[in-house]
Amino acid sequence: MGLLANATVAIDGSKCKAVNNRDRNFTRAKVERRRAQLEESVARYLSQLDTADRQEPSEALAIKTARLKEKLAKLSDEMRRLEGFEARMMTDRLDAVADRGYFSEEAGITVTLPKPQTSANKMKGRFVKPDFRYVAQDDVYICPAGEKLLHRFTNEEHGLILRRYWANARPTCAIKNRCTASKERRITRWQHEHILEAVQRRLDEHPEKMRQRRETVEHPFGTIKAKMGATHFLMTCWHTTSRAS
């Protein structure tokens, strides 16, 4: 409606029982497939109408022509409905704030979120990946001891292109016990990890964004589930002050 100058979307997820009618569930790919089917049907009916126009008029032909025109009208309505779905899927430029785990950055959407952390090393008191500095121009990682971890090979896992880095073993490294129990510490870098680094930098520059995300999106989910009959115990914190008399 043009009422908002800039749009910020806060993203969260929750599992709720729902009814998802296939006739009302559309993605871009599904819209494109359905449009192709409709266009094929329209072309077929128009061809049949053209053939009917060249035949001798009769009552049966008039009935057939009326039915073809009725089908074309329904197809036209369906095309307009698809155009409506497509218009709803089109977005302006957005700022999106999400919790850890969302890391797709679509065109026209500026994402702010924390990088996913999957390593258990921090719990063991060891260095984690953010402790290793990546130098893009040299394509190397610098470890906390100042050693370079060089790119050794690239492979694909679960559809992701991953680059592997490690340094030559240094048994004399004074802080090796804080790094790894293996022969050498290895670092894995995703082909598009620069995206994760960019969104993490935005979060570091604007830490208030995560509070804004929680305040915007988590409360509605709680309210929806409560209205659906969730019976979780709710706590309210009361802040009290006392004053000596």
Alpha plus pi helix count:
4
Low-confidence stretches: none
The oligomeric state of the chains shown is single chain
Q: What string gives the helices and strands in order?
A: EHHEEEEEEEHH
Average pLDDT: 78
Q: What is the percent of helical residues? A: 25-40%
- Approximately what portion of the residues adopt beta-strand conformation? 15-25%
Number of strands: 8
How far apart are the first and last residues' alpha carbons, in Å?
58 Å
Q: Based on CA inertia axes, which overall geometry fits?
A: elongated
In the sheet with the most strands, the strands line up as 4-5-6-7-8
Specify the biggest β-sheet.
5 strands, antiparallel
Structural class label = alpha/beta
Using only C-alpha atoms, the radius of gyration works out to: 29 Å
Short description:
With 245 residues, the protein is of the alpha/beta class.
Helix-strand layout with pairing:
Blueprint: E1 7-10, H1 28-53, H2 59-89, E2 94-97, E3 109-112, E4 133-135, E5 140-142, E6 148-157, E7 160-166, E8 186-190, H3 193-205, H4 208-227
Helix pairs in contact: 1-2
